[in-house]
C-alpha cells in the first residue's frame, strides 16, 4: 500500500480515534536543576507551573512519555507522530504532567529522533524485552518493574543495540532521566543494566536465544530474534520455509524507504534529481524497477526544505506493517 505526497500541499486527515489527555500517574521527584518559572498563584494542581530542566535530553523524555501513552493509554504511534509536528506546548504538557518537569522545546532533529525511537522500540519490543530480562537478576524483577523505568530501559537498549549511538552517552543520558523522573535507586538500576549491555555488545556476546529443539521451540526463538508474534512465525515458516520467513521478518522490521519521482513533465529528469541529491550529500540509490524513481532512507527533512516550493519532485512513501 502506498501513499503519494506532493510538497507544497497540506493534507488534513480526521483521526478515527482520539488519545486520552488524562495524565499518566507515575512516581516523580522534582529535579534539583530545574529553572523556576512564574507561578499562577493558584494551589490547584491543574494550573501548576513546572520548572524547565535543561540537563534532560528532550527527545528521550518525550519518547518515554509517548511509549507510556501507547502501552498504557492505547494511543497510536502514527497519530502521536503526526500530532507532534508543531505542537511543542501540547507535547511538553504531557511531559510535565507525567514526569514532573519540562525540557527545552523539541527541534526538528529531536522530532525525528522521537519518531525513530518510538517506532523502533515498538517494532523491536519483544527482542528488547528479552535482552532486558536476560540482564536482570530474574524475570520477577522485570515483571515488577514500573512502567516508566521499563520505557527508559527500552529506549536505552534500542539506542545502543539498534541505532549504534555512542554507548556511554546513552547510559549517562538515560541514567539522568531515571534519576530526575523517578529516584536515585532507579537511576542506579538503569546504570547497572545499560553498562552490562555495553560490555556484552562490545564482546559480541549478547544473550540471544538458540535455534534448537522442535518446531515450536525454534519458532519461539525466531519470534524473539526478529520480534514477531510466535503464531505468525510458525505460519510463515510452515508455508514459506524458515529461510524465506526470516527474510520476510527482516524486511518487515526494516526502516521504511522513500522513493522520489522526478517530474519529467516539468523538465526535471532523474539525472537532475541525482545531481541535486549528490550536492546535498543525501544517500540514495536508483530504483531497479521504475525509470524516474530514486530511493532514499534518510535526509527527508533536508529535501522537504529544498523542494517545498516546487512541483519537480514527488515522494512515494512505502508503508510497512508494525510487528511486536
From TrEMBL:
Ranges of residues in domain Ribosomal RNA small subunit methyltransferase B-like ferredoxin-like: 228-299
Entry GO MF terms: RNA binding
GO process terms (BP): DNA-templated transcription termination; transcription antitermination
Residue stretches making up the NusB/RsmB/TIM44 domain: 93-197
Keywords assigned: RNA-binding, Transcription, Transcription antitermination, Transcription regulation
UniProt superkingdom: Eukaryota
Family: Belongs to the NusB family.
Stated name of the protein: Uncharacterized protein
Native source organism of the sequence: Vitis vinifera (Grape)
Amino acid at each position: 500500500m502506498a501513499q503519494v505526497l506532493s510538497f507544497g500541499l497540506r493534507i488534513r486527515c480526521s483521526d478515527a480515534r482520539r488519545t486520552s489527555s488524562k495524565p499518566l500517574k507515575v512516581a516523580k521527584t522534582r529535579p534539583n536543576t530545574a529553572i523556576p518559572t512564574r507561578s499562577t498563584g493558584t494551589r490547584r494542581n491543574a494550573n501548576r507551573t513546572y520548572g524547565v530542566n535543561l540537563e534532560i535530553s528532550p527527545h528521550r523524555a518525550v519518547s518515554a512519555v509517548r511509549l507510556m501513552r501507547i502501552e498504557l493509554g492505547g494511543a497510536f504511534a502514527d497519530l502521536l507522530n503526526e500530532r507532534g509536528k508543531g505542537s511543542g506546548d501540547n507535547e511538553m504538557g504531557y511531559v510535565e504532567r507525567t514526569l514532573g518537569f519540562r525540557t527545552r522545546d523539541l527541534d526538528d532533529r529531536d522530532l525525528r529522533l522521537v519518531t525513530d525511537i518510538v517506532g523502533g522500540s515498538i517494532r523491536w519490543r519483544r527482542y528488547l524485552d528479552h535482552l532486558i530480562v536476560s540482564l536482570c537478576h530474574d524475570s520477577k524483577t522485570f515483571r515488577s518493574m514500573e512502567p516508566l523505568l521499563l520505557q527508559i530501559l527500552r529506549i536505552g537498549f534500542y539506542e545502543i543495540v539498534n541505532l549504534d549511538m555512542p554507548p556511554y552517552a546513552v547510559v549517562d543520558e538515560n541514567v539522568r532521566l531515571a534519576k530526575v523522573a523517578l529516584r536515585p535507586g532507579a537511576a542506579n538500576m538503569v546504570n547497572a543494566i545499560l553498562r552490562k549491555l555495553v560490555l556484552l555488545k562490545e564482546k559480541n556476546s549478547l544473550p540471544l536465544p538458540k535455534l534448537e529443539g522442535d518446531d515450536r521451540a525454534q519458532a519461539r526463538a525466531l519470534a524473539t530474534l526478529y520480534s514477531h508474534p510466535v503464531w505468525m512465525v510458525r505460519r510463515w515458516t510452515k508455508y514459506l520455509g524458515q529461510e524465506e520467513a526470516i527474510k520476510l521478518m527482516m524486511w518487515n522490521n526494516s526502516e521504511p524507504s522513500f522513493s522520489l519521482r522526478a517530474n519529467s513533465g516539468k523538465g526535471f529528469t532523474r539525472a537532475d534529481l541525482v545531481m541535486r541529491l549528490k550536492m546535498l550529500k543525501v544517500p540514495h540509490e536508483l530504483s531497479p524497477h521504475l525509470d524516474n524513481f530514486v530511493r532514499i532512507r534518510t535526509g527527508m527533512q533536508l529535501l522537504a526544505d529544498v523542494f517545498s516550493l516546487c512541483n519537480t519532485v514527488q515522494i512515494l512513501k512505502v508503508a510497512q506493517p508494525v510487528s511486536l
